[in-house]
């Protein structure tokens, strides 16, 4: 059986490793931060310790007992927590990285609970590297554009759509889709565009160009 002292050591190690990942997520203002990751790592480590301990404790009565039976439920059960971290923001999906970090931290907790401290430490270091270092590299070299939703209310007139496409081209927008609805009584057109825009887009320039459209009533840039 695992001694109480060993269980405490493993819980403390899980709390530290989970907390390190949680701090990184907290710095990025994610919905699941320090406390969530730390509590998750502690809980999964405790589940692993209990799973091993029960298999060892009742081995004379159940010689074929599975020491991973209880811990296995952590892997499948963590899905609800990860799903809670994912939400839709305009045309983009947020929280996928946090959801995967939660799942991985749960595994780290299980590994610590099984007593494999070195492997858990390496996994945490790799996770932190993927979350922080690769995030900076991705933003700098790979992700030069982001997806935005543009909602426009404007007076309908001849040539409006082509004029709008020209404005998008001048701003460096790559339109992925355009949706239209029209109020025939007021002759007002509602345009919903999903476009890729440069990450370092000048917002003042966007506001100025859209404000100068003839017949513009309202616009949103999300």
Describe the structure.
With 222 residues, this protein is α+β, with helices and mostly antiparallel strands. The protein folds into 2 domains: 4-142, no CATH class; 145-221, Alpha-Beta Plaits (2-Layer Sandwich), CATH 3.30.70.260. It is built from 8 helices and 6 strands, in the order ααααββααβαββαβ. It has helices spanning 4-27, 34-57, 69-77, 79-84, 96-113, 117-142, 160-171, 203-211; strands at residues 87-89, 92-94, 145-155, 174-183, 188-198, 216-221. It has a 4-stranded antiparallel beta sheet, covered by helices on one side. Strands 1-2 form a two-stranded antiparallel sheet. A hairpin with a 2-residue loop joins β1 and β2 (92-94). α1 packs antiparallel against α5 and α1 runs parallel beside α6 (117-142). The longest helix has 26 residues, at 117-142. The model has no long low-confidence stretch (mean pLDDT 83).
């Amino acid at each position: 059986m695992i001694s109480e002292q060993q269980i405490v050591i493993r819980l403390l190690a899980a709390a530290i490793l989970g907390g390190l990942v949680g701090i990184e997520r907290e710095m990025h203002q994610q919905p699941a931060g320090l406390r969530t990751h730390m509590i998750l790592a502690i809980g999964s480590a405790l589940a692993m310790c209990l799973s091993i301990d029960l298999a060892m404790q009742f081995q004379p009565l159940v010689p074929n007992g599975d020491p991973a039976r209880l811990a296995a439920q952590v892997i499948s059960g963590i899905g609800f927590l990860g799903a809670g971290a994912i939400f839709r923001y305009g045309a983009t999906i947020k929280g996928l990285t946090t959801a995967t970090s939660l799942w991985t931290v749960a595994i780290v907790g299980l590994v610590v609970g099984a007593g494999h401290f070195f492997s858990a430490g390496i996994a945490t270091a790799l996770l932190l590297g993927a979350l922080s270092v690769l995030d900076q590299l991705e933003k700098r070299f790979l992700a030069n554009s982001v997806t935005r939703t543009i909602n426009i209310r404007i007076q309908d007139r001849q040539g409006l759509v082509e004029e709008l496409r020209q404005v998008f081209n001048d701003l460096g927008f790559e339109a992925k889709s355009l949706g239209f609805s029209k109020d025939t009584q007021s002759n007002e057109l509602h345009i919903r565009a999903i476009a890729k825009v440069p990450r370092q887009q000048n917002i003042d320039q966007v506001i100025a160009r859209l404000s100068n459209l003839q017949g513009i009533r309202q616009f949103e840039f999300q």
